[in-house]
Amino acid sequence: MMKIATPYPAVSEARLDRLQTQLGTALPAAYRRFLLRHNGGRASDAAFHVPRFGRTLVNDVLGVDAGDHADLMAMR
What we know:
Layout: E1 3-7, H1 13-23, H2 29-37, E2 41-44, E3 47-50, E4 54-57, E5 60-61, H3 72-75
């Protein structure tokens, strides 16, 4: 199971509401809970197997207002 070793700064319910408005859609409930808990961040134990592709790694999980390299809206 992937764990977030270094989360990005906390995000509020109000900020997620504004993000949904910017996106024009609601975030899935599980993803919203994840953002409230971690707001993305640097992953650890992030290796997993993808059928037909093999071993895959995740370094960073996008967050809200997390800086250009890891910001959900910037990468959109």
